[in-house]
Amino acid sequence: MSDAPQLIPTPESMHVDAGSFRIDDHTVIHCTPDASECAELLADYLQVTGHRIPITSSATTSGISLRVDTDEDLGAEGYRLDVTTAGAVLTAPAADGLRHGIQTLRQLLPPDAYSSEPHPDVVWSLPCAHIVDEPRFAWRGSLLDPARWFLPIGYLYRYVDALAMHKLNRLHLHLTDDQGWRIEIERYPRLTDVGAWRKESPLGHQRDNVHDGVRHGGYYTQAELRDLVRYAAVRGVEIVPEIDLPGHVTAALAAYPELGNTPDVEVARNWSIHSTVLNLEPATVDFFRNVLTEILDVFPGRYVHLGGDEVPPGEWETNPAATARLQSLGIPADQAHVWFINQLVPILAEHGRTAIVWDEAATPDLDPRAVVMSWTSAEAGIAAARLGHRVIMTPMQRTYFDWYQVDGPHEPVALGGLTTLRDVVEFDPAPPQWDAEVRARILGTQGQLWGEYLPTPARVDDMAFPRLCALAERAWSSDRTDYDDFSDRLATHEQRLIAAGIGTRCLLRPD
Ligand code: ACM
Question: Ligand 1 atom closest to Cα of 373?
């Protein structure tokens, strides 16, 4: 392995020089006024050095300088980092670039930089280097699913830290599903009073049909989520909420049965696809319009995910009111999920927001403004791009990190499937052989951690890392990455993950 800094994701270009700059009691952070929030973030990270590092707006000749410079010829998330023996200068055309440059600066420090305890005993040196960097893709995401097993809000903060460390910029929160509704909606309190709680959960694999007999639940208040959104924004991470509809709604129907097609629904106690779906009445569309109004107020980011996956049409085919409604709308039952989504896309658009849907909704009738996540296959993403949609590549064979990561007899129970670290490293979300037109519509990629078999934060960490490190590499870096090179860098990177308290599988990597 070379002495060059072992960075993940790999920067666009890096030249290393002799010498280093040492951070000590004389170091100051100098910033332009528009970089002051980033300077505070850096100062916060550098508390680990045990040195008191003040922030100043007066020019200094040494220390660490952060500057927003709109003349810098880089994309919105790009940055330039120059470390000499006199200090470090980080410049970017916008604050997001500075945020990513700060993460690179941290990776240039010893791995203890990620510790939550100060380490005044460590020599805190940055190697002299010149780095110019910007991402290949604008969308670099990670999905968490607290709908299946509720994840404590504190874990979401730690997870945002881990995303920022890898220059991942989207945390997709799957907030609602058959087994739980996890966000407070003030207008409809039963969504959480009733919908956030289930009587029991599967024990072991779903196919064993054994239950734990333990009531499970929880939800996030809007105030908690607003605080999380602000914390994430300072770190360059946008929270993308998902309200999954018109299927995966059993928890909502347990709370408000009038939204459905059958009486007596309870919050689901089993995983798998449920037959309960929303009805197609105007009052039901209005209900979700009102839900979205509150969602838009909590989450200021551009994107809101509306689901659209795994919607069995059975209830619409058999319920007399539903069949009459389909007839008056003039749509077949197997297109009703697209109709429902199409009622809500314009509501988001009116507020300057963009809807995202899973690829089953990407039929020719889907509102062209919707962005598509292609989970069933890469081909589904290509097809959606050909229909004119922008696409986030999330094919399950490469990006489902709730699938097994190794094929061995001692793995904790998982859904099934196998997505190895190598599968992720070798995944190109927009390979060169695809048409230029299709490639131009690929916004990026995202790793999924569906929650059915991830009942604790420790299980989420174990399945996320190191595969999410590989996803970050594929989403940020140019398409040069090969597995051996990545593995070499991961050997150093795992020390950072361990110092950060992230429960990683790196040390056990089989190949
Ligand atoms: C999905 O995995 N149902 C999006």
Answer: 4
Q: Has residue 119 got a pLDDT over 60?
A: yes
How remote is the CA of residue 287 from the centroid of ligand 1, in Å?
24
Site to substitute for ligand 1 among 240, 305, 310, most atoms within 8 A of C-beta: 310
Quick count: other Cβ atoms within 10 Å of Cβ 383?
Answer: 18
The 10 Å CB-count burial string (b at 16+, else e) for 56-67 is: eeeeeeebbbbb
Contact (CB, 8 A) for 429 and 474: yes
Residues 330-339: what's their mean pLDDT?
A: 98
Q: What is the pLDDT of residues 146-198, one digit of tens each?
A: 999 999 999 999 999 999 999 999 999 999 999 999 999 999 999 999 999 99
Q: Is the omega angle on the peptide bond into residue 466 within 30 degrees of 0, that is, cis?
A: yes
* Catalytic entry in 172, 174, 248, 337: 248
Give bridge partners of residue 191 from the DSSP assignment: none
Q: Is the pTM of this model over 0.85?
A: yes
Q: 186 near 200, Cβ under 8 Å?
A: no
Which secondary-structure segment (H or E) carries 165?
Answer: helix 153-165
Query: Residue 509's pLDDT is what?
Result: 56
248 is catalytic: yes
Q: Whose structure tokens read 């024990």?
A: 203
Q: Classify burial at 417, counting beta carbons within 10 Å of its beta carbon; exposed 0-12, middle 13-18, buried 19 or more.
A: exposed
